[in-house]
Amino acid sequence: MIRIHISRPKPQTHFIHFKMEVDNIGSEWEDFQLPTWRPGRYELGDFSKKIGAFKAFSPSGESLTVQKKNHSLWSVETKGEAKIIINYTVYGDVLNAGSSYLDQDLLYLNPVNTFFYRPDQEEGYEIGLDIPADYRVSWPLKEVDGIWKAADKEELFESVLMASEAVKYDFYEVEGYRFHLWFVGNSKPAWRKLKRDFTRFTKAQIKAFGDFPVPEYHFQFLCLPKRFYHGVEHTASTVIALGPAGQLMKGERYESLLGVSSHELYHTWNIKQIRPAELWPYDYTGENYTRMGYLAEGVTTYMGDVFLALSGVFTWEQFKQTQEENLQKHADNFGRLNLSLADSSFDLWVDGYEPGIPNRKVSIYADGALCIFLIDRAIRKKSEFKQNFHDLMKRLYHDFPKKGKGVSEADFRALAIEMGGAEAEKIIDHLMYGTDDYSPYLKKAFAEIGLKRVEEANPKLDMRLLGIKAIKSNGKDGKIVSKMAPNSPAEKGGIGVGDEILAVNGNKIKTSLSAALESLEGKEVALTVKNAWKTRNLVLKLDGKSYYPLQKLAKIERPSSAQKKAFEDWTGIEF
Questions:
Q1: Per-residue pLDDT tens for 150-178?
Q2: pLDDT reading at 352 higher than 90
Q3: Domain with CATH 2.60.40.3650 in the chain
Q4: CA gyration radius for the chain?
Q5: Of 127, 329, 340, 527, which residue has the fewest beta carbons closer than 10 angstroms?
Q6: What pLDDT was estimated at residue 354?
Q7: Per-residue pLDDT tens digits for 536-559
Q8: How much is the average pLDDT of 201-228?
Q9: Is 300 left (phi over 0), alpha (psi -120 to 50) or beta?
Q10: Which fold has domain 277-452?
């Protein structure tokens, strides 16, 4: 048993204090491991850089020698003691769905980046909190007389703590399961609307799988003052960081809240239960390489949105926008010409979720979702609408995690081909594991459901005419080149990513490059460009092509009854 006391003596400093009492010491040197990554984020986390003073003592207060074996493993000389005490601090200065944070108004802990475990044994945890009396605690762990208990490290690492005076709470129930809604921050939850919409997509997901994997579930919303969007799945909960807090209950931000919530709930089955074999079980000491990012995130991105349509939460226009976003991300990322979806999944452990070098890899979310859509179409056609991708996932759920094992690439492939036939096999081989052009596959699939893909000219002239995207350092439109289409006028003309464009045809840029191009005439444009070393005058020849077009979906005119039926079977929405 490990007993931990958490305190916050000076919350404004962001230092969270931990006192860890460890029993059953049985070796001369005792090892303590801090996880190196967190499930749901397939990159190394470097959590140890947030650990402050790490000191060990005997019960009588004698100092014990501490040695560090590697970047995330500490070892304590026990000197024959049956119990030792460790004091350490964590610097919590980052607010997102996967980090930890402390200030005068909030204690927010992701245990996977703040708690230690002993590698050679499984044991439980008992945790006490020293927090203000008016704080309300959201923590999926069981609490008895002010002590929170976790049966083992897995339960602890999958349960996030949020404690604050500004906690708002309600719940809803579906099929006998209770779903908790926790909001932290300056938000005003529209409870009636929230519970109506959440009940709908929750009921639809449970019906598709046949049961719910856990006794209860917690939605924990971290409502931030700035624009933000981030969600992290856990076994029986999710943390969702969104902002601006004051806009979350209306319009686009409410749609985003619904989208990420449906996505994260679907993870309760997919990845927390249905999991690539390489992640069964999790190894917290290093990389867990898998090529199945299309299962972990492609499936979840696609299915989370589909259930919003099928449950009646999203209209066609709202659901269509989610599919257009996937198309846009795919089209704008020229990594699709270089690295397959499967290899891009493997290489998340190389460069994480950063943009990385230009045009290197694809998104396991957007590209994965498009591939799953195509396999879904193949299954529906082969079965004459008697089965769909929901049925494939239900079979995976009952045949693998419920039998105590993970899903291999061969397992997924075999089931997809069994249900989707030769068409599914082609999608797997040529798109998931290859770099073929998605366009003909998508064109055919959309036509089958009465849709067509439409490309509209990008209103931003730097993107449309020159083939570049220019931003300011804060991410808004500006004049710093952040990305560039291959063989575009910009690339051919000598511009590089990171260059700053100072002037267009001799006129200094006052606002953004796109605005400066509005008065452009002719087939050439003169640019004054600055890199790290010098300023150059370049002449770009426009080729008349339209780069970075906007990706749209439209219903075709005079659809057949078969197309209408296929559309309605897919969305649950009348054509």
A1: 999 999 999 999 999 999 999 999 999 99
A2: no
A3: 2-164
A4: 26
A5: 329
A6: 81
A7: 999 999 999 999 999 999 999 999
A8: 97
A9: alpha
A10: Neutral Protease; domain 2 (1.10.390)
| CATH 2.30.42.10 domain span(s) along the chain | 461-541
Lateral strand order in the sheet of 228-234: 167-174, 177-184, 216-223, 237-243, 228-234
Burial class of residue 183, CB neighbours in 10 A (0-12, 13-18, 19+):
buried
Q: How far is residue 192's CA from residue 211's CA, in Å, rounded to a whole number?
A: 25
Which tokens sit at 330?
């795919």
Contact 526, 538 (CB under 8 A): yes
- Looking at domain 167-261, its CATH architecture is Orthogonal Bundle (1.10)
Q: What is d(CA 265, CA 201) in angstroms, rounded to the nearest whole number? A: 9
CA-to-CA distance for 50 and 67, rounded, in angstroms? 17
CATH 2.30.42.10 fits 461-541, yes or no: yes
Q: At 200, which helix (H) or strand (E)?
A: helix 191-209
DSSP string, 17-58: EEEEEE----SSEEEEEPPSSBTTB-S---GGGGEEEEEEE-
Residue 476 has pLDDT above 80, yes or no: no
Parts of the chain belonging to CATH 1.10.390.10: 167-261, 277-452
Of 175, 177, 138, nearest to 159 by C-alpha is 138
Q: Six-digit token pair at 402?
A: 């419920």
pLDDT at 474 over 80: no
Contact 293, 341 (CB under 8 A): yes
**Nearest CA to 467 among 321, 367, 324, 334?**
334
- Cα dihedral 513, 514, 519, 522, rounded to 10, equals 90
Q: Are strands 177-184 and 216-223 parallel, antiparallel or unpaired?
A: parallel
Second CATH level (architecture) for the domain 2-164: Sandwich (2.60)
Mean pLDDT, rounded, for 302-329 = 98
**Six-digit token string for 209:** 């799988």
3-state SS, one letter per residue, for 290-340:
CCCHHHHHHHHHHHHHHHHHHCCCCCHHHHHHHHHHHHHHHHHCHHHHCCC
**pLDDT averaged over every residue in the chain:** 96
Question: How far apart are the C-alpha atoms of 483 and 526, rounded to whole Å?
Answer: 20
Structure confidence by residue, pLDDT tens digits, 75-113:
999 999 999 999 999 999 999 999 999 999 999 999 999
For residues 417-440, average pLDDT: 98
- Please, are residues 227 and 221 in contact by the beta-carbon 8 Å criterion? no
Enter the pTM of the model: 0.96
Question: Do 275 and 406 meet the contact criterion of CB atoms below 8 Å apart?
Answer: yes
pLDDT on residue 479: 87
Q: Which residues pair with 501 in a beta bridge?
A: 529
Q: Residue 29 in contact with residue 78, Cβ under 8 Å?
A: yes
Q: Can you tell me whether residue 351 is helix, strand or coil?
A: helix
- Secondary structure of 488-526 as H, E, C letters: CHHHHCCCCCCCEEEEECCEECCCCHHHHCCCCCCCEEE
Tokens of 43: 């990159």
